[in-house]
């Protein structure tokens, strides 16, 4: 199953997340199919960039977003 979820980047105590499309059986930070955005919760104000066209495409072909990604996409 294909999922849209966050993968952690950055360093200790300075998280930075990429919003990626990946296979649900892979680990959180292992290889992914496509990166469709990023989220930086440390910056003031918090930064969210999401390619809505690609996000909607992946939803249309059956990808399931994680709870956090769904909440971030709705807030945008």
From TrEMBL:
Keyword terms of this UniProt record: Ribonucleoprotein, Ribosomal protein
SUPFAM superfamilies: Ribosomal protein S16
GO BP, sorted A to Z: translation
Listed Pfam families: Ribosomal_S16
Record GO terms (molecular function): structural constituent of ribosome
Record has Ribosomal protein as a keyword: yes
PROSITE patterns for the chain: RIBOSOMAL_S16 (PS00732)
GO cellular component: a single term: small ribosomal subunit
InterPro entries attached to this UniProt entry: Ribosomal_bS16, Ribosomal_bS16_CS, Ribosomal_bS16_dom_sf
The family this protein is said to belong to: Belongs to the bacterial ribosomal protein bS16 family.
Name of the protein: Small ribosomal subunit protein bS16
Organism: Arcobacter nitrofigilis (strain ATCC 33309 / DSM 7299 / CCUG 15893 / LMG 7604 / NCTC 12251 / CI)
């Amino acid at each position: 199953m294909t999922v849209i979820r966050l993968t952690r980047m950055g360093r200790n105590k300075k998280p930075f997340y990429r919003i990626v499309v990946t296979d649900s059986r892979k680990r959180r930070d292992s290889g992914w199919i496509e990166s469709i955005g990023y989220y930086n919760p440390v910056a003031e104000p918090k930064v969210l960039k999401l390619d809505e066209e690609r996000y909607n495409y992946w939803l249309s072909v059956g990808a399931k977003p994680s709870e956090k990604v769904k909440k971030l996409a709705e807030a945008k």
